[in-house]
Design a protein that fits this description.
alpha+beta; 321 residues; Ferredoxin
Length: 321
């Protein structure tokens, strides 16, 4: 009898507890905007943190509650941004973001300053005399960026990080981990140029450190008609709000370090040579129409008499008497 009583008691207590929990969930529930779940469903679900939030759920909440832009999910790309914009009733940017390494300091162009034998991370090497390369602004090349990339989109090639633009989602994880800050997230797209150097030293010092350094000559700045590129802290930088992507700065750069890294051909467009206009061909004369003899105008009468011919012979000389 005691066992039956215990079972009944437990059942009653459980039922009462269930009723209390249901009532509490109903009356104490916090309403959540249904759009948060819809936005979260549009995201890639990578939880990479490239958007600046702890995960996809936090970013979805920030989009709905705080009005954060809907194009911050790099793995989702323009497709996810368009879907979120449709839910939020706005418009999304169509430009796809990609990472670009602003350094060409390979082993050919930038020699080692010393033989580094320490911890094989960029952060550790950069803390020792600015890194093992002669250019203290260069990519260290030990692959911290490759370790954090979840999409296998960046690798170390000949001592410099190289981005696979087909795999890159522009999440920004590589840019955040780089101790030299030579990785930028290019939101300008393939039609805008990038200065592929981060060296801030003066011209002679920069050239000694790396043969592909920007020498701050200002040729690009003087060439640009749109005031879109300036030498800042010893290195040229592009103002993408003003840049038209004409490529004139890249054409005039003596070091050839202004490129279009997101294009299939990164080299600048060739200058257009204007040819002198060819002289116009003379207009062809229209053929004269033949007039029937019956309708031809009467010929002008010939002159009544020809002018008297000049006397060919001279007058005979009169003999002297």
């Amino acid at each position: 009898m005691s066992i039956v009583s215990a079972v009944i008691l437990c059942t009653v207590v459980g039922a009462i507890g269930a009723i209390v929990l249901v009532a509490a969930a109903k009356f104490m529930a916090v309403e959540e905007d249904p759009r948060i779940e819809e936005v979260a469903g549009c995201l890639a679900g990578a939880n990479c943190g490239g958007c600046g939030y702890a995960g996809c759920a936090d970013y979805a909440k920030a989009v709905v509650m705080d009005g954060v832009p809907c194009d911050k999910c790099a793995p989702g790309g323009p497709k996810a941004a368009a879907a979120i914009a449709k839910i939020m009733g706005g418009e999304a940017s169509a430009v796809e973001k990609k990472a670009v390494v602003q350094c060409q300091g390979s082993t050919e162009h930038c020699k080692p300053a010393y033989d580094y034998k320490g911890i094989q991370t960029c952060a550790a090497a950069a803390a020792l005399y600015g890194g093992p390369k002669t250019c203290s602004f260069a990519c260290v090349g030990l692959g911290d960026c490759t370790k954090v990339c979840k999409f296998d989109a960046i690798h170390i090639v000949d001592g410099v990080a190289k981005v696979d633009k087909d795999k890159c989602t522009g999440c920004g994880a590589c840019a955040n981990i780089c101790p030299k800050k030579v990785i930028m997230i290019d939101a300008a797209g393939p039609r805008k140029p990038v200065v592929m150097c981060s060296n801030q030293d003066k011209g002679p010092v920069a050239m000694k450190a790396c043969t592909t350094s920007c020498i701050a000559c200002g040729m690009c700045e003087r060439t640009c008609k749109f005031d879109a590129i300036h030498v800042v802290d010893g290195v040229a930088r592009v103002d993408y709000d003003k840049c038209k992507g004409c490529g004139m700065c890249a054409q005039k750069c003596p070091k050839k370090i202004i490129l279009f890294p997101l294009k299939d051909d990164p080299n600048p467009p060739k200058p257009v040579v204007k040819q002198a206009p060819k002289p116009a061909a003379p207009a062809a004369q229209a053929p004269k129409a033949e007039v029937p003899a019956s309708q031809a105008p009467a010929a002008k009468p010939a002159q009544a008499a020809a002018q008297p011919e000049a006397k060919a012979e001279a007058k005979p000389e009169t003999k002297a008497e």
